[in-house]
Design brief:
By secondary structure, the protein is an alpha+beta fold. Helix content is about 25%, strand content about 45%. A 7-stranded antiparallel beta sheet has the order 1-2-3-7-6-5-4.
Length: about 140
């Protein structure tokens, strides 16, 4: 490892990873439109290795005004994604909410490329759409 005088081991490790190795990064975007929906946030997680960047995952989050609003958002999202990706797998999460998976993970044919559902964040219902892992967007 490169040793820089006067720098903590943690800082040296971070610099080493930036220059020679892989570093995990996140970037957040606000007010993103996807599948006809306005999403509050989109968080993209990616790794950087030298000049290469590889997207690991992407999460879109929409905070809903009510449970009814969340169900309407899920219904519209389900309709749009079914038109694009075909059959979606339906499941229920541990709280009994419907959640869906679809597409094919480009790195593993037996895994879905995305999932979405309704989640509680305190007293707020959120619709989350997760993609990942992906090699590019």
């Amino acid at each position: 490892m490169l040793v820089l005088a006067g720098m903590t081991t943690q800082a040296q490790s971070e610099i080493h990873n930036l220059v020679f190795g892989t570093k995990e990064c996140q970037q957040t975007f606000r007010n993103v439109n996807y599948q006809g929906q306005q999403w509050d946030t989109m968080v993209v997680t990616y790794s950087v290795n030298g000049q290469q960047r590889e997207v690991k995952s992407c999460r879109l989050v929409k905070q809903c005004k009510s449970t009814h609003d969340a169900f309407n958002t899920i219904a519209a999202l389900r309709y749009g994604l079914q038109k694009t990706y075909g059959v979606l797998e339906e499941n229920t999460d541990t709280d009994g909410w419907m959640c869906y998976q679809g597409g094919t993970d480009p790195r593993n044919d037996s895994r879905s490329a995305f999932s979405f559902g309704i989640y509680k964040n305190g007293k707020v219902d959120e619709v989350r759409l997760d993609f990942g892992p992906l090699s590019s967007l």
